Structures are given as structure tokens and as C-alpha cells.
Amino acid sequence: MKKTAISILIFVISFAFFSCTDDDHSLAEIIALSDNNFSNDTIYVEYNGSVVTVKGDDYNLITTDGADVTANIIDTTAFYVFVLSGTSTDGQFKTYAFHKFGIVLNNLTLSNNDGPALNNQCHKSLYLTCPAGTTNTLSDGTSYTETTEDQKGALFSEGQILFSGAGSLNITGNCKNAIACDDYIAIDSAIAITATSISSNGIKVNDGIHINGGTLSIIVSADGAKGIKCDSIVNITGGDINITTSGDYLIETTDGVTDTSTCAGIKCSGTMTMSAGTLTITSTGDGGKGINCDSDIYFTGGTLNVTCTGDETVSKPKGVKSDAIIYISGGSFTSQSSNARATDCANADHYPTILGEPTIKSLAKKKVIVSYE
Q: ∠ CA(345), CA(348), CA(351), 5° rounding?
């Protein structure tokens, strides 16, 4: 695709995140505010096995070692966009930056035998776009050789990740998480993301995840793994989300302290809110949870379906669990567990607090249905 066509395409499919902080803008806003010509700040990287072709690097930002590509962005004002395409079975794209930047995946297939495929060491926002009609695949190796830097998944970022576009992105974590972010994640537009991990979590995020649209499919099979593991808030305002966990419980001993961790579709340390969209969670492993939240859960709209069928050898496989209160005030809420409680929270009866007048309210130990539709 011609350079100008790619530039226009990136601009058209850009998005705005209403749930993000004031420090973040849509890709369109950043382009409009830039003092530089956007096309001059677009760099094309094409992988072909162990060979990489770079075009448009007028500022010598790119260094290569075989198919290992590193971008060093020392400019603190310009907004650079890297368009990645082609195929490599042993390569990576790593970035060091002091400013926000964009990555466009244009039919990229990239695997790294000894670390992440995409590795952002920048603490600023990464705008990751998959244009409509593209299929992109990322995977990490079964072991990592780097020990001096954080590398936590096939797609890893120190800064925020803001996903957009209408193409597809398939990510496999063979050693660690599929997607890992030390800041927050936002997902918007019509992007389709499939995150699979055989060794850890589907998505591991520190500072919150905002799912505003798109299609998100997460499959994890490791013992104790989470579909989404978030150390802050989970906010769902749209999208079609499907999470499957099949691992059993995991017993770990650290400094003489033994802890049991079970799988969960979503493990949330902060508040979880869902106001729209569809969320389906299936957990089949021993003790596996659907949603496991340390704080309040607010379900105000959308469609939730949770099914847990695991045994309770060490831990009970609960559908929706909160250490605080589960509030339901809209949408359609269904949670069931074959061998334990469908819902569990700080209320004396373990059932959610139901607000308003639902059209369906069926509360049983192993199946809870509340619908306002």
C-alpha cells in the first residue's frame, strides 16, 4: 500500500478514549496538533525472514540485528508512526521513547524465540492500530533471555496501550502473558483481538482496563491463570468479550508462605463496572472462578453469562465473587456454578444487591438470573 494511503487510513480509523486521563488524546488529535508533517514521521518496517527492510527513516531512529529491530525515539515532540508488515519466525520490534508514538500492524506475522514480539520500553502511550482487512499475529518464545528489562508477554508495554482499527490481532503467550501492560489498556472501535496463553494470563494490566468496543477473545489453560488480571479497575462500556479458562488451582510457596491461586475469567483488584456490551466467561478447571473482584462490582447494563463447572478440591468454583458488594441495576445477568455458589459477596445471603424492578429475578445457590430486558 502506498505511503499516502496508509497515512489516510491511520487517520480515518483513529479513535477517542473518553475514559482515559487528560494526558491522552486520540490519534487524530495528536496528528492535528503535531508541528511536523505527518507523512514525514511515518517509518515502514517490512520483515522477510531474517531480513528487514526499512523505509522513511529520515532521522535514523531504527537499528537492526537480523530481524531484531529497535527504534530509539529521542525526540520529545514529534509523533512517529511505525508501519510493520511481513513475516519473521524469529524477530522483534522494540522501542525506546520519551514521547507517545503509534504502531500500525499491516498484515504482520512476528514471532520471537527468546522474548516478546512487540516490546515497548517507553512509559508513554502506545497507539496500536490494526487497519480493516488486515490479519496480524504475534507470539513470544518458550523462554526469555533478557534479564535486565521487564518483559512480561508476547506484547509488552511499559506505557498505556490504546488499541484501535477494524482488523484482527492474534497474540499467543508461550512463556508469559499474551498481553502485558504496566500502565492501563483501552480497547475501542471494531478491532478483533484473540489472546491465548498456555503459561500465564491472557491480559495482565496494572493500572486498569477500559473495554469500549471491539471483539475480545481470551483463552488461557495454565493452572492459576487469569483471562484478564488487573491490579486496578475494570470498566466495560461495550464490545463482545469471550473468556475461557481451563487450568486448575495453583499452589505456590514464597518465603515460607503457601498460597493457593485459582483460575478466573477476570481477576480485578479494584472496582469492576459493566454498563454495555456482552461478556461471556466459561471456567472448567478445579476451583476456577468467573469473576473474582476485591472491590465492588457494578452491573448496570449489557449481557453477562458466567458458567463454572470445575470441582472444589481445594477452592470453590464460584461464578461471580466480590469481597465487597455486587450491585445489579440493569441489563441481563446470569451466573451459574455446578459445584458451588453462582454469586458470593459481603451480603449476609451472598446474593447481589438488586436495584429497581427487574423483569426476571431468580436467585438460587447455583444459578442466579437477573434481567431488566
A: 50
CB 342 within 8 A of CB 317: no
Mean pLDDT of the chain: 89
Where exactly are the structural domains of the chain?
1-220, 225-245+254-373
Give me the residue label for grid cell 424492578.
357
Task: Give how far Cα 272 sits from Cα of 70, 219, 263, 344, Å.
Answer: 37, 20, 18, 15
Q: Please state the pTM of the whole predicted model.
A: 0.90
C-alpha cell at 245: 479458562
* DSSP per position, 203-271: EEESS-EEE-SSEEEEEE-STT-EEEEESS-EEEEEEEEEEEE----EEEEETTEEEEE--EEEEESS-
Query: By mean pLDDT, which of 14-28, 33-47, 49-63, 176-190 is the weakest?
Result: 14-28
Contact between 236 and 262 (Cβ < 8 Å): no
